[in-house]
Amino acid sequence: MSDAMEDQKSRAAAWFRSLRDEIVAAFEGLEDSFDGEGDAGRFEVTTTKRSAEDGFDAGGGLMSVMRDGRVFEKVGVNVSEVFGTLGEAAQKAMAARGVPGVAEDPRFWASGISLVAHMQNPHVPAVHMNTRMFWTPSAWWFGGGSDLNPCIEYDEDTAHFHGQQKAFLDPHGPQLYPELKAWADEYFFIPHRGRARGVGGIFMDDRNTGDWEADFALTQDIGRAFLPAYVPLVEKRRGQAWGGAEKDAQLVHRGLYAEYNLVYDRGTKFGLATGHDANAVLMSLPPIAKWI
Questions:
Q1: Is 210 a residue whose pLDDT tops 70?
Q2: Phi and psi, residue 163, nearest 5°
Q3: Sign of CA dihedral 95, 99, 104, 105
Q4: Rounded to whole angstroms, how far apart are CA atoms 9 and 82?
Q5: What pLDDT is recorded for position 86?
């Protein structure tokens, strides 16, 4: 591996960690600024470790989870940097997506940030964000995005969320926002329910234009768009009155979210297949859900 790629991997991993720190601070700030019941929530941080089959170190990360806050019922912000050898199932999945050379040399490296927030107030939308870089000896690529998952939809909230994402993506080319929005609409669709899991956002995967710096810059701006897109919605809705009907709608919608993440989500499947900490992989699941 070239020294240039080693430097690029290091820069990507450092960026994901710095974005994690910024989001954690912002979310704890939302807890502090809300005059709700109980103590302001704080993240519990756990170091995760991953071991190869031979017992050697295979990377890990940080799992940061806040539970039972004033604003957040459960939110996780995880970062990871893992490496090793792809198993047979993962090799086949990569080959099916057109990744070259994984059968001949199945080594890999991956780093990223993954965030899912489930809220106390049903009027505040749940949200997901993930960005990542993946490397094999024959290829590298970036992926990720963010999407909004309200159980009670407000058109103005959806417009704000998408508007911020468009503003951050437009400098990279006017075609990108509509392209990544359409990809999100397709990716976050739940076939067995015949509906999307939320109101969409942006999503990309396997992005390698041949210009690492340009693709990394785009990935960074997808991450930078998250807080301006989401925090104002939390501030607007966190004090809104709600009752039993709204809470019931939230729990049913969380069931939909859990179904998607367990059945279809590519990151969940990859994390479990490669032996990453199961609690970190399944951090996205809501604390309480309901099926009818």
A1: yes
A2: -65, -40
A3: negative
A4: 11
A5: 83
- Read off the amino acid at residue 168: F
- Say if residues 252 and 291 touch (Cβ distance below 8 Å): yes
Query: Out of 118, 123, 128, 276, which one is annotated catalytic?
Result: 128
Tokens 């930078």 found at = 224
- 103 pLDDT band (50/70/90 cuts)? confident
Return the beta strands (E) in the chain as ranges: 44-51, 57-67, 72-85, 107-119, 126-136, 139-149, 189-190, 195-196, 200-207
Map tokens 């996205």 to a residue: 284
Q: What is d(CA 185, CA 20) in angstroms, rounded to the nearest whole number?
A: 25
CA–CA dist 169, 145 (Å, integer): 11
Q: How far is residue 227's CA from residue 24's CA, in Å, rounded to a whole number?
A: 11
pLDDT digits (tens, 9 = 90+) for 60-92: 899 999 999 999 999 999 999 999 888 787 788
d(CA 35, CA 190): 37
Q: What is the 3-state secondary structure (H, E, C) of 233-256?
A: HHHHHCCCCCCHHHHHHHHHHHHH
Within 13 Å and on the Cβ side, how many CA atoms surround 263?
A: 14
Tokens of 72: 């957040």
Copy the structure tokens of residue 18.
Answer: 């710095």
Reply yes or no on whether 160 is catalytic.
no
